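From: lab user (bench 3)
To: helpdesk
Subject: output format question, protein + magnesium ion

Hello, I'm new to running complex predictions and I'm not sure whether the block I got back is the full result or only part of it. Here's what I submitted:
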Amino acid sequence: MIEEPKPPEYRVGIGTDIHRLVADRRLMLGGVYIPFPAGLLGHSDGDVALHAVTDALLGAAGLGDIGTLFPDNDPQWKDADSKEFLYAVKELLDKKGWEIVNVDLTIHTEQPKLGPIKGQIQRCIAGLLAIDFTAANVKAKTNEGMGEVGAGEAMAATAIALLRKKYKRTL
Ligand code: MG
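Helpdesk reply: Thanks, we reran it on our side. This is the complete output you should expect:
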């Protein structure tokens, strides 16, 4: 007798992050270096966009959060390239049998204008996660001058991710 195929199992996760913008620090955003007079403060490179995507993926897989996996008091991650975090989580998802359906990221910042850079960030995330370019959407918004983001004192990011469980073919 042939077993009924199991319905695909999907999981969704959300990730949010905020980092201070400080003068004279390299700005790494979405894995891309952006020439700008200020950068994101953090134990790692402070890449708020990749942190949000990483947390969305971990959340979807029920694997906790970025701070637990890569503690910000661990000297190993001092000034770490956040692409390493995202790639390590992608490998973890592979091991656990999760396939990434898509991620959608919104970056909240007044400056710099991300219009010309969004495509680069999208390519970087799609490449790291080995998903189609269209499955790694990147959006940018200002905060209309309000709050810390509006004052240019911080950048924030929100991301959502959808995972599908990979089943072994039995036939
Ligand atoms: Mg962070």
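A quick orientation on your result: The mean pLDDT is 94. Let us know if anything else is unclear.
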